[in-house]
Amino acid sequence: MKVKTILVSQPEPKIENSPYFDLQERQKVKVDFRPFIHVEGVEAKDIRQQKIDLSKFSAIILTSRNSVDHFFRVAEEMRFKVPDTMKYFCQSEAVAYYLQKYVVYRKRKIYVGKRTFNELSPLIKKYKDETFLLPTTDKVKPIIPETLDNLGVKWTQATFYKTVISDLSDLENVTYDILVFFSPSGIDSLFKNFPDFKQNETRLAVFGNTTIKAVEEKGLRVDIAAPTPETPSMTMALKKYIDEVNKGK
C-alpha cells in the first residue's frame, strides 16, 4: 500500500534542515510529530530521600541532554554551587556541546566519548580516584550500571527525571500509514493510550533492537527496521521503504 502519512513518536525537530523535512518534500508524504512519552523532573526533596549529597561527588557522568538539564536544575534547587573543579564525562559530542549551555567549556574538565557508553568507559577508567554521580531517568539501560560496576570505580546512580507516558486521546480516530518508534517506552505508551490497538494495514518503523523486541513481544509486525548497514538512520530506512512501495503508484 502506498505511503501518504507518517507519525513520528518524537517532538518536531527544531532545526530547519532536519532530514524528516527533506523526506516530506522529496517523497511527497505528510510527516507529523507527536511525543508518545515525555520527561518530568524529580523534585530536589525526593532526590535528598535517595541520600544524594551533590558535594560528595567530584565527577558527573552525562548520558543525554536531559541528564545535563536535570543535573543543573537539581543543583540550583538544592542551592549547590557546582565547583569549577567538577569533571564532566559526556557520552557523546552532542551531549558535551549541550553542556555549554551551563558551563564555560574551555574552563572545565570535560571528557567526551564517541557515541555509546562503552566508548566512554575507558575515559572513566582512567580516573578511578574520582567519585562519580550518574544522574539518570527511572529507566536506565542495564549496560550502563553493569559497565560501571565492571570498571571498579566509585559511583552512585540517582533518578533526577522520569519518563512519563503522554496523553494521546486526541489521536483516537486518526490513522497513519506509518508509525515510527524509537524506544520500548513509546510502545508502552501506544498500548496505555490504545489498549485495543490493532496493526492491520499500519506499518511500524522501529529503531533499535530493544524497541524491535518490545514490538514483537506485543505481537506486532516490524515493517521497517533501523539501523542497518544499508540504512543507518530512520529517515534513510523510511526513504528506502517509501521508494519501494510508492513506485509507479
Structure in words:
- With 249 residues, the chain is of the alpha/beta class.
- The chain folds into two domains: 5-36 and 168-223 and 234-246, Rossmann fold (3-Layer(aba) Sandwich), CATH 3.40.50.10090; 40-163, Rossmann fold (3-Layer(aba) Sandwich).
- The chain has helices at residues 19-27, 44-49, 65-77, 93-99, 117-125, 143-151, 184-193, 209-217, 234-246, and strands at residues 5-8, 30-33, 37-41, 59-62, 87-90, 109-112, 131-136, 154-159, 161-165, 178-181, 203-207, 224-226.
- The strands form three sheets. A five-stranded parallel beta sheet has the order 2-1-10-11-12, with helices on both faces.
- Strand 5 (87-90), helix 4 (93-99) and strand 6 (109-112) form a beta-alpha-beta unit.
- The longest helix is centred in the N-terminal third of the chain and has 13 residues, at 65-77.
- The termini are close together.
- The mean pLDDT is 94.
Give a quick summary of the entry.
The chain contains 9 helices and 12 strands. By secondary structure, it is α/β, with parallel strands linked by helices.
Features:
2 domains, Rossmann fold, 9 helices, five-stranded parallel sheet, 34% helix, alpha/beta, 249 residues
